[in-house]
Amino acid sequence: MGRWRTSLLFYRVMASSKSINPKFCPNPPLRSSNFPLPRNRFSNFRSFSALPSPSPFYAEDFDYKAPNFDLDHNLEELKENEDTGKILVKAFFLCTSVDLKSMQAENSKNIIPPTSRSSNYIALRFCNPPLQTGSVIEENDSCCRYMVVFQYGSAVLFNVEDHEAEYYLQHVRRHASGLLPEMKKDDYAIKEKPLLVDDMQGGPDHIILKNLDVDSIRVISSVLGQSIALDYFVSQVDGIVEQFTDINRGMEKSGTFTMDRKKLFQLVGKANSNLADVILKVGLFERSEIAWRDAKYAQILDYLREEYEVAQRFGNLDFKLKFVEHNIHFLQEVLQNRKSDLLEWCIIVLLSIENLIGIFEIIRESTGIAI
Question: What pTM does this model have?
Fold first, then answer.
């Protein structure tokens, strides 16, 4: 009796394990209601595993999360939309003087009529760009390139790519003098948002405008042109300060001053000319008539001057020039003292010669020797 029950139980366990695999038994036989099968006691047992089940607090850490490709795609589209409404602005300082009259005569078709009495710059519009990136270009203001050239050597380009900038700078070089061996460059950006509540809004390395017009271009280019020119003059003054620093270190070691007077005067002239160029040519403290007439342009002007720290940078430049001026006065006094010492020695020599001649005359008269 026990053997029969054991064999029947083993048969049921094997049958249940075979019915789990569908490939093994695709169509299991139906059970007959007339012959009830004995109850399988093993079915009441819970499955046992050597690995502990994950805690419900940490179960979600093991869940597989599919990457959200739609979110990445939306971020890329948002970035592309931001770049689409961006207008590139590039400022260059490539020379110390530009003949605006000859340049205006050569590019008369592209000249934008001035709206103020300022004569230290000209604005040009190029609606037929020489280089295209493969996109269809329509005849509207958004596809036009703008260039503002200042008499002191700055040129500001609007809506111009990097590979197109050299073409427009050639227009400036043909009428420039004092070309720099290495021109200075600065990048900025403008974004247009017609639905903007205010007329302008600042951002990191860009400005948001409700509407970009020609007067806005003039105001923005004036600040960018002054800023890039100020960088050049600051570098020139830094070179002068470095030379005086080397002179002072040499005096500290040797205790003497061996600088030529001519070279000192050249440094004096260079420092004074840089200060005069910043104040007179660049017009750092001249008012803008466009900003004077309309408050929204004055807001743009004040924001950009604060953004580029024009006043603070000029203050640093003025401090360095005062240091140069102090050293110049000191070295001039040293040279003047040297010159005074030389004159004193010359006087002493002449007086000595005169005394010798007087003594010789006295001796001749006393001895009666005729020479």
Answer: 0.67
Count of other CB atoms within 10 angstroms of residue 131: 10
Angle at 192 between CA 189 and CA 197, to 5 degrees: 125
- Write the CA distances from 27 to 21, 88, 210, integer angstroms: 11, 73, 75
Beta bridge partners of 151: none
Distance CA 168, CA 131 (A): 11
Treating both helix axes as pointing N-terminal to C-terminal, what angle do 295-307 and 214-254 enclose, rounded to 10 degrees?
Answer: 30
Place of tokens 């302008």: 200
Between CA 1 and CA 4 the distance in angstroms is: 5
DSSP letters for 81-144: HHHHTEEEEEEEE--SEE-HHHHHHHTGGGBPPPSSS--SEEEEEESS-S---SS---SSGGG-
Which among 221, 223, 187 is positioned nearest to 204, based on CA atoms? Answer: 187
Contact, 220 vs 154, CB < 8 A? Answer: no
Q: pLDDT digit of tens for each residue in the chain (371 aa)?
A: 444 444 545 555 455 544 444 343 334 443 433 444 444 443 443 443 444 444 444 444 444 455 555 555 455 544 545 555 789 999 999 999 999 999 999 999 999 998 777 788 999 999 865 544 443 334 444 578 999 999 999 999 999 999 999 999 999 999 999 999 999 999 999 998 988 888 888 888 899 998 889 999 999 999 999 999 999 999 999 999 998 888 888 888 887 777 777 888 888 888 888 888 888 888 888 888 898 888 999 999 999 999 999 999 999 998 988 888 888 888 877 777 777 777 778 888 888 888 888 888 888 888 865 54
Q: Rounded to 10 degrees, what is the CA torsion of 246, 251, 252, 253?
A: 90
Nearest to 129 by CA among 114, 115, 144, 117: 144
Q: Residue 309: left (phi > 0), alpha (psi -120 to 50), or beta?
A: left
